[in-house]
């Protein structure tokens, strides 16, 4: 009886794992219709505010997004994005040391980790969720090219209350498509990424404006949009 139960559980686990792998593989080509983060945020907002809440989400392929937006999020969130396999261990060590000294808590999540978390998982911490995030990050890095990871991130990142992706953000804040985002626009969007509900694109605080300036400097330090060429190189040559 116990042996049959164990085999049944193992079979269920195998089917679940296969389903996850197939879902991640399919999303290499299929635009995600939504994300776990969008669904969670919508449910919470409907509970708090009622049916007036609206999700703005418009998928755009990478070639229809300004390269200024792409380099801005890399400069702001993950400058080693072209070179790592999902985890920036140097940033993780620095974050641990900084937090241990009692400084302002800093994170070290890469763009790949944020895609895994926002697309598939729930908010919050805990070792179990972190473990799932790590496993999904490795799976995404294995099955998707870097350009696809960046494309999905640019489309599902939150830039305001109910505003997801650079196309929706460009239309919401500037009434123009994402192809026309300037370097300054893009740096402003990247500046609110740590907390897009408290930090606002349409009413930027001094902190957001200062952060925008820092990101513009980081973009210049990386060499501008030419840095994106690293994404097209084979992993062995990066």
Describe the structure.
The protein has ten helices and three strands, in the order ααβαααααββααα. With 238 residues, it is mainly α. The protein folds into two domains: 1-30; 33-237, Penicillin binding protein transpeptidase fold. Strands 1-3-2 form a three-stranded mixed beta sheet, covered by helices on one side. Helix 5 crosses helix 7 (146-156). The protein starts with a helix and ends in a 16-residue tail after the last helix.
CA radius of gyration is: 19 Å
- The portion of residues forming beta strands comes to under 5%
**Sheet of most strands:** 3 strands, mixed
Secondary-structure element series:
HHEHHHHHEEHHH
Write the layout of secondary structure elements.
Layout: H1 2-26, H2 36-49, E1 56-57, H3 67-77, H4 89-100, H5 111-120, H6 127-143, H7 146-156, E2 158-160, E3 163-164, H8 166-174, H9 183-191, H10 206-222
Parallel strand pairs: 1-3
Antiparallel strand pairs: 2-3
Helix pairs in contact: 3-9, 3-10, 5-6, 5-7, 9-10
């Amino acid at each position: 009886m116990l042996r049959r139960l164990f085999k049944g559980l193992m079979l269920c686990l195998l089917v679940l794992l296969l389903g996850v792998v197939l879902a991640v593989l399919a999303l290499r080509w299929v635009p995600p219709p939504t994300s776990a983060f969008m669904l969670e945020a919508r449910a919470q907002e409907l509970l708090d505010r009622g049916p007036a809440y609206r999700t703005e989400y418009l998928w755009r392929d990478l070639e229809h997004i300004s390269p200024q937006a792409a380099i801005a999020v890399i400069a702001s969130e993950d400058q080693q994005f072209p070179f790592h396999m999902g985890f920036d261990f140097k940033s993780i060590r620095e974050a641990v040391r900084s937090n241990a000294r009692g400084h302002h808590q800093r994170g070290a999540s890469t763009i790949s980790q944020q895609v895994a978390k926002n697309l598939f998982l729930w908010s919050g911490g805990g070792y179990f969720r972190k473990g799932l995030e790590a496993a999904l990050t490795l799976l995404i890095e294995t099955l998707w090219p870097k350009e696809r990871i960046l494309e999905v991130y640019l489309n599902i990142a939150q830039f305001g209350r109910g505003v997801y992706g650079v196309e929706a953000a460009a239309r919401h804040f500037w009434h123009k498509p994402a192809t026309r985002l300037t370097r300054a626009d893009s740096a402003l969007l990247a500046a609110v990424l740590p907390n897009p509900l408290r930090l606002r694109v349409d009413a930027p605080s001094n902190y957001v404006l200062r952060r925008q300036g820092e990101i513009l400097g980081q973009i210049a330090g990386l060499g501008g949009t030419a840095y994106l060429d690293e994404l097209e190189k084979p992993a062995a040559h990066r």
